[in-house]
Prior knowledge:
Number of strands: 0
Organism: Paraburkholderia phymatum
Strand content: under 5%
Protein name: DUF4158 domain-containing protein
Amino acid sequence: MRAHNGHLTLLPEAERQALYDRPEFDDFQRAEYFAFTADELALAERRRGLNEQILCLLQTGYFKATRAFFTFRGLQETENKTR
Length: 83
């Protein structure tokens, strides 16, 4: 199957999103993946500044869920996700 741009498409869009996009968690999953151990909190506390600490905790939580790392564009995106 070829995409509109001429590149080969191996996965349908829904499967690609399931594999590579940041997941949306329900309340139960959020409580599970973002419950941090003392070691995980200590790792985050060693980061300079609140933004880096939040990013560290987000990366830790998402990694526990997906075994992948994601790019965060800044604190504004972080604030939207924590609401």
